[in-house]
Write a structure and sequence with these properties.
Blueprint: E1 5-13, H1 20-31, H2 41-67, H3 74-90, E2 94-102, H4 107-116, E3 121-126, H5 133-147, E4 155-158, H6 166-180, E5 186-192, H7 224-239, E6 246-251, H8 264-273, E7 278-282, H9 291-307, E8 312-315, H10 323-333
Parallel strand pairs: 1-2, 1-3, 3-4, 5-6, 5-7, 7-8
Helix pairs in contact: 1-2, 2-9, 3-10, 6-7, 6-10
Length: 334
């Protein structure tokens, strides 16, 4: 009997091409997820199909085109590289599959691959260090529903976050260290944002969006914003960065509803007003470089910084398939 362990890596997804039609299809699938836009079904459908997808597809396609590689989407390329390197690192007793919540390769295909390999247990690992319902929750829901369709369900282990895992923090610190050996003024840790309404639950009611979240405790353990701040504190401690040399911000907000703060573009202005000229930016909520890191930060935020008179803007690449991250993932899994 096979004693193989399957590892199911989950990521958000990407369009199949940077043209408008492909991006529109992707946006429709992504934004009609009830965990992403928390509205009644008919309102969500009208908003996505009638307003967002028709008007935003061209703008998003233009952004994707700027970062697209000859081989395809950076997110897919880096995620697949992580899968290959991790399977090799774990050895012959493991089979690693990659499933995207939206787009291809989808989660059903990845689960089918593990089923065909006759794995006896599956470790489900979303590639999101911090837990958010709209990303981690959605991917896990889809994965578990897919696995549940099989007659024989293997033993399951779900790793829903690893935001303060020491191996992940060490890998992050190792990747950032070369960029702060040189002279710099400030390191900004920019995380993906969420609408505030997605944070309004009992354990978040005392959260002041204008202040840093307190250290992780029994009340905020599952709060995305608190997890981001905890990651940053541990990272700064690991790197030996003083409190006045680093900060947290949240990017990628859309629409007019309030999102969790502080906003990355506002923080850039504040830093320039404080006299910061040499800025280092890292994105600890992303393990693979994608539209949000390469275009939103690497192109648009850089242009904003230069327009404000900033002298240097250094973007730290995501962990991608670096040896330190592959080793960290393997330790987290094992």
């Amino acid at each position: 009997m096979s004693n193989l362990t399957g590892v199911l890596l989950l990521n958000l997804g990407t369009p199949q091409h940077h043209n408008v039609a492909a991006v529109r299809r992707y946006l429709r699938q992504f934004l009609t997820d009830p965990r992403v836009i928390e509205l009644p079904g008919i309102l969500r459908w009208f908003l996505v199909h009638g307003i967002i997808a028709p008007f935003r597809a061209k703008q998003s396609a233009h952004a994707y085109k700027k970062i697209w590689r000859e081989e395809g989407s950076p997110l897919l390329l880096y995620s697949e590289a992580i899968r290959i390197e991790l399977e090799q690192h774990l050895g012959s007793n493991y089979v690693v599959a990659l499933g995207m919540r939206y787009g291809k390769p989808n989660i059903a295909t990845a689960v089918q691959q593990l089923h065909k390999a006759q794995v006896q247990q599956i470790v489900v690992l979303p590639l999101f260090p911090q837990y958010a319902s709209a990303a981690t929750g959605s991917a896990l829901q889809q994965a578990l529903q897919t696995i549940a369709r099989y007659k024989v369900i293997p033993n399951l282990q779900v790793i829903k976050d690893f935001f303060q895992n020491r191996y992940y923090i060490n890998a992050l610190a190792t990747s950032i260290l070369p960029f702060i050996h040189k002279d710099y003024d400030f390191i900004l840790m920019s995380y993906h944002g969420l609408p505030e309404r997605q944070m309004v639950h009992q354990e978040y009611t005392n959260c002041n969006m204008q202040e840093a979240c307190p250290a992780i405790n029994e009340y905020n353990r599952n709060c995305y914003r608190a997890q981001c701040y905890q990651t940053s504190r541990l990272l700064a401690q690991n790197l030996g960065i003083s409190a006045d040399k680093w900060g947290v911000a949240f990017q990628s907000r859309l629409g007019k509803l309030p999102w969790i703060q502080p906003y990355t573009d506002d923080i850039l202005q504040n830093l320039r007003q404080r006299g910061v000229t040499k800025l280092v930016v890292c994105c600890p909520s992303f393990v693979a470089d994608c539209l949000e890191t390469l275009e939103e930060i690497g192109i648009r935020a850089r242009a904003q910084w230069q327009s404000l008179g900033g002298a240097e803007f250094t973007l730290v690449p995501c962990l991608n398939s670096s040896p330190q991250f592959i080793s960290a993932l393997a330790k987290i899994i094992v």
